[in-house]
Amino acid sequence: MKRGSFSLFQRSPTLAWLLGLNVVSYALMVLLALTFRLSGQEAFFVWLYHKVSLPANLHELLRQPWSVLTHMFIHDVHSFWHILFNMLWLYWMGQLFITVQPQRRLAWVYVLAGLGGAVGYLSYALTKGMGGYALGASAAVNGIILATVTLMPHYPVFLFFIGPIALRWVGLIWIFLDFVTALTNEAVAIAHLSGSVVGIFIGYAFRQGWSPESILKSIHEYFQGPEEVSQEEIDRILEKIHAKGLKSLSRRELRILQKATEKL
């Protein structure tokens, strides 16, 4: 077990951290639930539980904005199956994902799909005027599943009682099951489907060469300015202008050229 865990951290520390955060937070919540129940303070635990869950109330959400992120790492303490199936799918699809994408991008998909699920849930809940709270990694995991399906739709997988099928059929079955969920819980289904849609878009964006790391780099450069570059880099940009024109420059190259001009 120790060797397997260490090996997972070596191959994909992002996947290991996502699994670890979910499992540790679940174990912690279970221990807190048991402790406060035995001490007769169960109401305090419910209050704490709600503070890390996503409220279907805009005023309450504004008082606990962190729940937009924390809710996707918290699971129902009364349902072990909830976290078990989410973590199994996260592990299986996460392993496939990192065969075609840098492992750090797994966190991007997880968080963006989780946020997509939150937006879907809140949009539905606020429209219907319903209360309650949302929690769980399902929307985030759905995003990883559908992003992986979009990246490698023809990859063969083996399903019990069915045999080998293309990964795209797993994606279609998964979406169908979410529609089935809508028959009993529309809000949950909307959150799951929203995470799936975000996953599909991200998977398609990755196939087109989109780099999410560029977002952080752009933010950094906006506040810190572009990094110091060599004279060779400036000469390369000037040659590009001569060959293809000013419009061929990227935003980064334009910022470098502007900074170099200011130093003259």
Biggest sheet: strand arrangement: 1-2
Cα-atom Rg, whole angstroms? Answer: 23 Å
Percent of residues in helices: over 70%
Give the averaged pLDDT, no decimals: 87
Regions with pLDDT < 50 over 5+ consecutive residues?
none
Strand content: under 5%
Which secondary structure elements does this structure contain, and how are they paired or packed?
Blueprint: H1 2-11, H2 13-38, H3 42-51, E1 54-55, H4 58-63, H5 67-70, H6 80-97, H7 105-128, E2 133-134, H8 138-151, E3 156-159, E4 163-166, H9 167-181, H10 186-207, H11 213-224, H12 231-244, H13 251-262
Antiparallel strand pairs: 1-2, 3-4
Descriptive report:
The chain is mainly alpha-helical. The chain contains 13 helices and four strands. A two-stranded antiparallel sheet has the order 1-2. The chain has a two-stranded antiparallel sheet with strand order 3-4. A hairpin with a 3-residue loop joins strand 3 and strand 4. Helix 6 runs parallel beside helix 8. The chain is globular and about 75 Å long. The termini are far apart. The model has no long low-confidence stretch (mean pLDDT 87).
